[in-house]
Amino acid sequence: MPLASPTVGRRGVFGDKPVVLFLSDPIDTRHIGLGSVVLSPWDPASAYTPRDPAYFAPNIRDLRSASSLINFRYKSEGEPKPGFFNHVLWPTPTQGVEITSARVVQERLFHHDQVLERIFRKPETKNAIVAMMGDADGDTEERELFLVVGLMIGNDMRTVARSAPASGESFEGIYEGDKIFAINYRSLKVRNKEASTDDAIQLGDYFPPRETAGKSWFSW
């Protein structure tokens, strides 16, 4: 199910620091992994490549790190405050969030230029990315895809999101097994108008890289 538009801040607020994008509907780890390329950052399971998230694992193992927390619990009331998460975006304006999980694993990629270079060594994957770029919205020079460079995976997780006091609504989700609930992305953009050339696609900023009018941002 497509997700709501994100709440983001003015360009330059985040600098070069990665932004954690929460998914309102966590997805199974069989869909995407580190090094996956997706069409929609808020609905990553709708269109992605490669189809097997473990496809790149042997080639990027030395560019990956992972850490975990057992019996994880995070609770935010009112205005978000600095804590375990930094620069968090939620799909809709949220007054408070509670997340509990038996275990949370945080996976990250570094040296993203090397990651992209290794991904493009596989012609079938490069061709799939170029084809997906053709499905992206906008004019050729405005199109972008999103490279997964960080994941947060919760095991047996429960989430509660409370909306603004005026509505008084809350949304609860219970998820068994391992589910991806937050993602870091780098933007992939068209270097020139001929996206069939070997160097047509280049690494861009962390997502979100640009201003979205009328929205706000949360930094936890």
Task: Give an account of the 3D structure.
The chain is mainly beta and 220 residues long. It contains 3 helices and 9 strands; from the N terminus they run E-E-E-H-E-E-E-H-H-E-E-E. Strand 7 (144-162) and strand 8 form a beta hairpin.
How do the strands and helices of this protein lay out in sequence?
Elements: E1 20-28, E2 37-38, E3 48-49, H1 57-60, E4 64-76, E5 88-89, E6 96-109, H2 112-119, H3 123-135, E7 144-162, E8 170-190, E9 201-206
Parallel strand pairs: 1-5
Antiparallel strand pairs: 1-8, 2-3, 2-7, 4-6, 6-7, 7-8, 8-9
Give the gist of this structure.
With 220 residues, this protein is mainly beta. The chain has three helices and nine strands.
DSSP strand count = 9
The chain-level structural class is: mainly beta
| Global morphology | globular
Strand content: 35-45%
Total helices: the number is 3
Report the end-to-end length measured between terminal Cα atoms.
Answer: 26 Å
**What Rg do the Cα atoms give?**
17 Å
Write down the overall mean pLDDT: 75
Low-confidence regions: 1-16, 78-84, 209-220
Helical content (DSSP H or I, runs of 4+): 10-25%
The sequence of SSEs as H and E is EEEHEEEHHEEE
Biggest sheet overview: 9 strands, mixed
